[in-house]
Amino acid sequence: IREYAHYQLEKNGELTQAYDNLAKWCNHFAQESMKRLRTSEQIEMVKQIQEEDHNIRVVLDYLMTQPTQLAIYSQIISGLSWTWNFLQVATLPFHHTQNILKFADQLSPLLLADLLVAGGHSAHTLGHYELAETWHQQALDIYEKLGDTTNVNYTRFFMSGRITNEARSQNLLFELRQKAIEAQDDFLLCLVNLNLSMVCLHSGKIEQSKIVLEQGLAICERHQYWLIIPVYYMDYASIQYTSGNFDKAFKLLEQAASL
After folding, report:
1. What is the pTM of this model?
2. Cα torsion at 28, 30, 32, 37 (round to 10°)?
């Protein structure tokens, strides 16, 4: 059916317009998905992204051949990248980020920074940690020049997972935690508390780890962040296991698996 539709559109000289319309729809879909990631609609949004996977791939392959549409090409990648990061979808955005960066001088600073963050996510997932650090640092430098404090905080959080110095990592996460509280950004707070609780646990601060994690879990459950809650249960299981509460640990793992 798709091949027949493609043939008819090409035959009638309407193929390019059809692709352009699909690209516009895909960009709107990507931007809305990014907003919905921070709401209780996370699961519905993920299902829609998975259902539209073929159309998204078709649009991105088309935009690879359209050098005059770099902006919309970049916006789709950056808009979907956060959800792809949660789903561990990395090869697709990494490939397209590399392609767009060949024309980086044609992007506005903000579009370039957003794309570099997206590329950093996929590079990290694929194990290209040095490249992920480079791209995220470049994005951070741009956001700081633009005075975009929200994206500065999120990018610093993304980079925090690659810090090997425990004390430095803990200090950064406590700082970001305070910034998230001041900005009333509960989504950022949930992400930061996840990493912070594990850093505290690994440094032997079990009670502090538990307090930080329970605060984040309460916020997640209140906002129904269903993509993040299972990770909280798994980390909470680690705390209970370290404390010798094996039954509680396994029950939490069962809860995580059920979600």
Report:
1. 0.91
2. 180
Average pLDDT over residues 98-102: 96
How many CB atoms sit inside 10 A of residue 62's CB? Answer: 19
Mean of the per-residue pLDDT values for the chain?
93
Alpha helices in the chain (DSSP H): 2-11, 15-36, 42-51, 53-63, 70-87, 91-100, 109-125, 129-146, 149-160, 166-183, 186-202, 206-223, 229-242, 246-258
CA–CA distance, 214 with 236 (Å, rounded to integer): 8
Cα separation of 15 and 1, whole Å?
Answer: 15
Which two structure tokens, joined as six digits, stand for 105? 């001088």
Query: In this structure, is the dihedral angle defined by the CA atoms of residues 22, 24, 27 and 32, taken in order, positive or negative?
Result: negative
Share of the chain above pLDDT 90, in %: 88
Q: Residue 238 and residue 252: Cα distance in Å, rounded?
A: 9
Give me the percent of the chain exceeding a pLDDT of 70: 94
